């Protein structure tokens, strides 16, 4: 089996699985309980928070555990809107966001907030001039995906941050779900980024777990109320086994980050080289400012799902665009925003790699793709 769908979800590290099992079996006390079992669990929770904070170069009290990327994006966006609505109701985002962001924006728009959707250029990047022109005195939030999950476009966060330094009251939120181990992300007091969202299962941790970074002094309204867990910001008994396993996976990925990025770039460079040999294949992932682990392409006249299933029959697993939207049957919103026609966008297939993938797998994929390419009747009719 060749698994090339790591942007959808990754396989858990064995070390993370072991941590999950150990905590589940031996440290089952509620971290909020006053007895010794609760105290031990509380200490494990603290250790996980400190570990993640150290890897990011931020403070432990700036890390809050969640159920994953969707909750994190919803919390940061809605929480900012509710907290700052008396100062303004204008929010800026882009046309290439994850569905968690898009639907949160739809929700707020129904409540009377005004949303400005920035277009992107053919390379999928935000026009900085348009961003500057969109900012207003009543703007309260700018929400931008750091690394696009469909085609792998990386936004110029530092340049965006420099613009936003002139607007210190505007919260700057990024969806950082795809970034871990794949790009260098600068957080902390010197960074203009106020809030960043992460999801465990994107970096070899368990599903249903994640965390957000919220810079000290940047308040958001809690969405979940109850027992006051997570420093009164996100109530609910903590999923300690998943949190500890996530912290372990996060540390392992961060420790090998530079080497993994180098390896992944070699693999994606070879993939792009192979794909560019075919006249009927379009590589949607831009050549510059793109992730080291994502290659999005399409075969002219062949819907993406046809290619996905044809590869699956050969025990190779890829996806169309994002996992959250691949079953909906719609075309890629990112590709449409980048200027591709619907009939072109619907051909999109996404390859997404991780550190365990190999050059041998890439070569086998290219061999299988060549065979499939030659067999598609539409190719011979052009």
TrEMBL record:
This protein's UniProt keywords: Iron, Iron-sulfur, Metal-binding, Pyridoxal phosphate
Protein's recorded name: Aminotransferase class V domain-containing protein
Domain of life: Bacteria
InterPro entries: Aminotrans_V_dom (IPR000192), Aminotrans_V_PyrdxlP_BS (IPR020578), Cysteine_dSase (IPR016454), PyrdxlP-dep_Trfase (IPR015424), PyrdxlP-dep_Trfase_major (IPR015421), PyrdxlP-dep_Trfase_small (IPR015422)
Keyword NAD: no
One MF annotation (Gene Ontology) recorded for this entry: catalytic activity
Annotated organism of origin: Dolosigranulum pigrum ATCC 51524
TM spans (from-to): none
Domain Aminotransferase class V positions: 2-365
Pfam families the record matches: Aminotran_5 (PF00266)
Family: Belongs to the class-V pyridoxal-phosphate-dependent aminotransferase family. NifS/IscS subfamily.
